[in-house]
């Protein structure tokens, strides 16, 4: 609810205006009708004891042209007004759906995480960085089933449908972290298919992008022992660590994982304890996810953890 009432883009401000208008009109109508019902219950109640077979039928009233006109014209006027206001808001918030030109960012839903790709090929997962005060044309796609991309403070909802593209304006009026979630039931972990939109000043965003596009420093020490284990223990079969790798249908990119604040589709903080839980018992970390359990010794777990923490 909080998010819904704190719009942070011109698009969501427009949505909120329509919502507030409908709410106020509906509340006024409710109060008028409820007051009329209450007044009638009290004013016109039978004052005789019940049951009273001798009670005459109350006076029946038929036809009042003025009232008929009133309660036909007024609702039509209200509905027409709301229709016009709603269509104007819809036209205002909708991004062009089929105009040429490449999108500023491509966001793909997977069971159960989000990934975002930038025009330079850089890939990130569930922490989606954008420059604040810039309106990005975002293309929403799906890698498997139907999802729905929704950052309530920033943009309208958009379904992610396999084989189809939908476009939204993605914009934040000020730097900040804005929560988002999948809004279409998509399987066991639908409710834990979170993401965050991290809006930064242009300078900070550019700096983030430079870092994100560059390879992580070569692992040393324990991390260097973990790097080959990441391959031999099959982690690399599903997870890439390259910043501009093609997306995988199997598992999210772990490129620069150490710079992520969250883990596992945005559901947990990126702490050594939580990474260890993912390594040793992925189904306990996020029940139903597609990561199989891999038997690891304590030393192997520590080495892979060190390697993942070295992915800065
Ligand atoms: Cu993805 Cu619900």
Structural class: alpha+beta
Largest sheet: 5 strands, mixed
Please tell me the overall pLDDT.
88
Q: Which small-molecule species are bound to the chains here?
A: dinuclear copper ion
What is the 3D form? Answer: elongated
Count of strand segments: 12
Features:
312 residues, 18% strand, 37% helix, binds dinuclear copper ion, 8 helices, alpha+beta, five-stranded mixed sheet
Task: Characterize the structure shown.
By secondary structure, this protein is of the alpha+beta class. The protein has helices at 10-43, 65-93, 202-213, 222-232, 235-238, 272-280, 282-285, 298-309, and strands at residues 105-110, 113-117, 123-125, 127-131, 136-142, 147-150, 158-160, 166-170, 176-182, 194-200, 262-263, 268-269. It is built from eight helices and twelve strands. It has a five-stranded mixed β-sheet, with no helix packed on it. It has a five-stranded mixed β-sheet with strand order 4-10-9-6-7. Strands 11-12 form a two-stranded antiparallel sheet. Helix 1 (10-43) packs antiparallel against helix 2, helix 4 (222-232) crosses helix 8 and helix 6 packs across helix 8. Dinuclear copper ion binds at residues 109, 112, 147, 182, 184-186, 190, 193.
């Amino acid at each position: 609810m909080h998010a819904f009432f704190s719009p942070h883009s011109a698009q969501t401000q427009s949505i909120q205006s329509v919502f507030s208008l409908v709410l106020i009109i509906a509340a006024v109508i409710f109060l008028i009708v409820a007051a009329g019902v209450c007044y009638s219950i009290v004013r016109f109640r039978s004052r005789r004891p019940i049951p009273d077979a001798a009670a005459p039928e109350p006076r029946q009233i038929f036809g009042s042209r003025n009232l008929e006109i009133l309660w036909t014209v007024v609702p039509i006027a209200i509905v027409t007004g709301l229709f016009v206001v709603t269509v104007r808001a819809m036209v205002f918030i909708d991004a062009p759906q089929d105009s040429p030109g490449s999108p500023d960012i491509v966001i793909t839903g997977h069971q159960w995480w989000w990934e975002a790709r930038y025009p330079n090929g850089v890939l990130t997962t569930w922490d989606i960085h954008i420059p604040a005060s810039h309106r990005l044309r975002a293309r929403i796609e799906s890698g498997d089933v139907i999802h729905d991309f929704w950052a309530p403070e920033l943009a309208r909802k958009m379904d992610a449908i396999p084989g189809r593209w939908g476009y939204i304006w993605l914009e934040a009026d000020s730097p900040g972290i804005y929560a988002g979630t999948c809004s279409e039931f998509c399987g066991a972990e639908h409710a834990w298919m979170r993401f965050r939109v991290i809006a930064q000043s242009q300078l900070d965003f550019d700096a983030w992008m430079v870092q994100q596009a560059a390879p992580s420093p070569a692992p040393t020490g324990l991390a260097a022992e973990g790097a080959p284990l990441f391959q031999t223990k099959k982690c690399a079969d599903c997870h890439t660590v390259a910043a501009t790798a093609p997306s995988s249908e199997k598992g999210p990119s772990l490129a620069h994982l150490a710079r992520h604040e969250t883990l596992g589709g945005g559901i947990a903080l990126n702490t050594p304890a939580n990474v260890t839980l993912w390594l040793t018992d992925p189904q306990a970390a996020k029940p139903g996810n597609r990561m199989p359990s891999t038997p690891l010794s304590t030393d192997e777990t520590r080495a892979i953890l060190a390697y993942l923490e070295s992915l800065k």
